[in-house]
Design a protein that fits this description.
Layout: E1 4-7, E2 13-16, H1 23-35, E3 40-43, H2 54-64, E4 67-68, H3 72-79, H4 91-106, H5 110-116, E5 123-127, E6 130-134, H6 153-163, E7 167-170, E8 177-180, E9 186-189, E10 204-210, E11 216-222, H7 226-236, H8 240-248, H9 260-263
Parallel strand pairs: 1-5, 2-3, 3-4, 6-7, 7-9
Antiparallel strand pairs: 2-10, 5-6, 8-9, 10-11
Helix pairs in contact: 1-2, 3-5, 7-8
Length: about 270
């Protein structure tokens, strides 16, 4: 589905992505966003994934979010595809991504498959600060990884120029960053609410976009009972390759595709 437009008032906006079926982490992030005074919640895709529990996380989105963008997992599931379309550079990372996708679709009802098929590929928010572009990977490709160490300001500015936007927010990499650009414009990766950064810290992350009095973004760090969730997933038979990062803060799937700086980061 092509891009949609929506108007937002001046209140702060919580921007989340990559829950991957992690119910308690997403629940904790929603609660924290409300405590932060966020009047709007936007989700930028890959709600479903390696933890299964697809219908549960989608119900949380239906109940709490007023803006939704499809990630590669939603696009592939809606199309009835057999692979995740993650776009990893490393073949083994892509193989694990497809295994994660299998957990996602196995716990996805037909009604929710039809619902995620209606999610747009991009969204544009009309705000008092100007137009904000929301996407999953990049404005060009749903599965493009925008890593902080490889950000090209010229390309970021070109996307904003093309969209006539003051800010763009993405996810997909699972690693949050905020990049200040010329003219007070912003580019943001909101990180992932379903898995920790690859840095040894168990917390998950999302972004808050402040519109007034000036345009600013910050990354929120949220903790939850990761050990209990990991124990539950183990009892449900989820592959340990997807459970280990929840309690170690170090990735298994996706690690080989990281650029050197992101691969070796620490808390």
């Amino acid at each position: 589905m092509s891009a949609v437009n929506q108007r937002c008032d001046g209140g702060p906006i919580a921007l989340m992505g990559g829950s991957y079926g992690n119910v308690p982490a997403l629940t904790a992030c929603i609660a924290w966003a409300r405590q932060c005074g966020c009047q709007h919640l936007a989700f930028l895709g890959d709600a479903i994934g390696c933890c299964g529990h697809s219908d549960e996380v989608l119900q949380l989105l239906a109940d709490n979010f007023d803006m939704l963008v499809a990630g590669n997992h939603e696009q592939q599931a809606a199309a009835g595809a057999q692979t995740c379309g993650c776009g990893y550079a490393d073949p083994d990372d892509e193989r694990l991504g497809c295994l994660a996708y299998n957990y996602a679709v196995a716990s996805l009802s037909e009604s929710n498959r039809n619902w995620i098929a209606t999610w747009p590929d991009q969204a544009f928010l009309a705000t008092p600060a100007g137009r904000v572009l929301l996407c999953h990977g990049s404005p060009d490709n749903t599965n493009e990884f925008l890593y902080e160490s490889r950000l090209d300001d010229a390309r970021l500015n070109a996307w904003l120029d093309h969209a006539d936007a003051v800010a763009m927010v993405c996810t997909h990499t699972g690693l949050p960053w905020v990049r200040q650009l010329d003219g007070g414009r912003l580019a943001v990766n909101c990180g992932a609410v379903g898995k920790p950064d690859h840095d040894g810290d168990l917390a998950v992350h999302f972004a808050v976009l402040q519109l007034q009095p000036t345009l600013k973004a910050r990354i929120e760090r949220v903790t939850y009972d990761a050990q209990s969730w990991a124990n539950q997933l183990a009892e449900e038979g989820v592959d340990p390759v997807f459970i280990t990062p929840l309690t170690s803060g170090r990735w298994t799937a996706g690690r080989n595709s990281l650029p050197p700086r992101e691969r070796e980061q620490s808390p």
